[in-house]
Amino acid sequence: MASLVGNVLIGQSGGPTCVINQSLVGIVEEAVGKREVRNVYGAVHGIKGVLEERLIDLGRESKETLEAVAVTPAAALRSVRKKPTREECERALAIFQAHDIRYFFYIGGNDSAETAHILNELAVAKRYELRLFHVPKTIDNDLRVTDHCPGFGSAAKFVACATAGDNLDNRSLPGIKVNIVMGRNAGWLTASSVLAKQHEDDGPHLIYVPERAFSIDAFIADVDRVYKQFGRCVIAVSEGVHTADGKLLLESKEVDSHGNVQLSGSGALGDHLAGVIKQRLGEKLRVRADTFGYLQRSFAGVWSEVDAAEAREVGRTAMRAALGGEHAHGSIVMKRAAGKDYAIRYEVTDLKNVAKETRPMEPVYLAGDNGVTQAFVDYARPLLGKLPTLRRLSDFPVAKKLS
Amino acid sequence: MASLVGNVLIGQSGGPTCVINQSLVGIVEEAVGKREVRNVYGAVHGIKGVLEERLIDLGRESKETLEAVAVTPAAALRSVRKKPTREECERALAIFQAHDIRYFFYIGGNDSAETAHILNELAVAKRYELRLFHVPKTIDNDLRVTDHCPGFGSAAKFVACATAGDNLDNRSLPGIKVNIVMGRNAGWLTASSVLAKQHEDDGPHLIYVPERAFSIDAFIADVDRVYKQFGRCVIAVSEGVHTADGKLLLESKEVDSHGNVQLSGSGALGDHLAGVIKQRLGEKLRVRADTFGYLQRSFAGVWSEVDAAEAREVGRTAMRAALGGEHAHGSIVMKRAAGKDYAIRYEVTDLKNVAKETRPMEPVYLAGDNGVTQAFVDYARPLLGKLPTLRRLSDFPVAKKLS
Hints:
Two copies of one chain form a homodimer. Helix content of chain A is 36%, strand content 17%. By secondary structure, chain A is an alpha/beta fold.
């Protein structure tokens, strides 16, 4: 393809992550100063900002600001959950034309890839020359094609550190603890609770993901068995768990324009499960529930350095691919090299391959209905980067003197 | 007082913190090798472990293990919530005698200080020669006499980082967000949500603590006003807020042996407040609630380096005081030096001065019914140590081209 000269526009969409700004900065740094690029703009609140023509000039930001923004959680451009209508896509293209936008990057998950795909189809149909790339991010790790998603490693690190600390707290003051982890369709993040586990009696003792049908009877039997064995029980439950007939344990009324039901931002599922445990196993048991909530994707100052570097590189790759001319549009995917050393290469796949549908955990990663395999640990561990060192006392016994 | 030769026993009690093991290691390192000290023991699960004679030999732990344990959250000796009866105190003294325990250190909050006080009164009455020290820890920061409590700075850092990230998440996807923070009797930790705030429009926009009567009508009016001003609202609410007549918003049935009602380990208060906001201000509003829960006191890998160093020094000071002979018993307190540079000196106060009763936030730290003052920020900021750098884009506007 011939080289294309014009302006660059970047948007961020969907639930933010702790490293989503790394991808933004990666695109900007590859764009600024290139012969084909006049200006580098950002759309405030994603496609909503495009439609409202709320654009900002990213090319004027200092390198120092950009680097500080890169390590700041949540969408620096601000985000949106919006699936544009046909008319809105036409309006977006009119805005692109008015501002001579020839490169558009949409950083987001599967819903944002769908938005990018719809917009791209219209641009192609209208013969508006546009290089349009979806830049992946999601803490849920549920995009297809790619080995894993930028944003996941940092959220997984948060969940692993939270669970490891909570396990020690539970060992200090024993009881039954239910932890609700984000993950609407896929259990990747919930499964990651296992990653700081060191000893056989450490929690999480039980892990429930949406890939397996959830039975309250089996759950109670599992908890009872673990509690009898260890005198305590730490449980990780995905917010998206559902029964064999596909019903969520608790239904919410709130639905977004992509058709997603609200799950996060409430402690109801954890409290419900804690209530059932008390009811079935004994009102006097010490049963507690925490819902890790938005902290999983936004906690300031905790991220995976591996994830941060990859999120940056995914942004850079998207800009390079757009300039390279081999692909007019697509989504960036990460492929893991075979062999025991962890290494990633970056490629382009078609937008339709990542739009809309999600990727569940493969069976090889799941152990029965309440656990994960070593294969999952091997898959996920490199993505979290450095984890804190945790140590127990040796518990050298002192002989009793009284009866 | 004459020097006293015998064994040292250490226990940890109450809700753990991320730096409670620093105090443990501080006592051990000051004890090992001292002429008056034969062995250094730990009681597993505090006073419960004493009564069950579950003692372990801390003197045999390697320096490397102790240093790794020091940076591990939660009670390495394991903890307990238990107020011993008169008979149990007599049994504890019998165990002390059998093991020649002449130095006892109880690391805990106000309830643990009460336990230490009761035990000490009995030892004095029975003329059993014992040096008994309470070593302060509590994320609640509600011990009397001391400037602040070991454990608070790290929990406050967690709350500040969680709130700062959540504020950015809320800026990305605007709405009303309720965050429930630990703090049964005092609002210190909830107030700390303000400490990573940078811009005038940053959350937390509203802060509610137990020191001020909570009115649901005033709360709704506050939220409505902030939401109208900023288009979003981030709120920090202490789990211990109550109405003017002293009633908690939601009552729990669970009470421990010190008479404390269970507040943590449930998302009910946050969900309740989110529900009232929707009901009063509009069902279509995006309203979410998170309860920070046990992560505040146990999250692995996040602590204040200032807090960690002070928790270590409090432990060392307790052991030195016990050997020094000036005090047979007491609790360690921190006094802040006057002047603008932050500096602490460590002193001993009577057990009765810190037992049972708690310290609320002083009026100088509270601004009206829904905020904190600059005096609070100045008081608390040094305790959190280094906080992450967060940065916004400059938002250089691009002129509109369409109407």
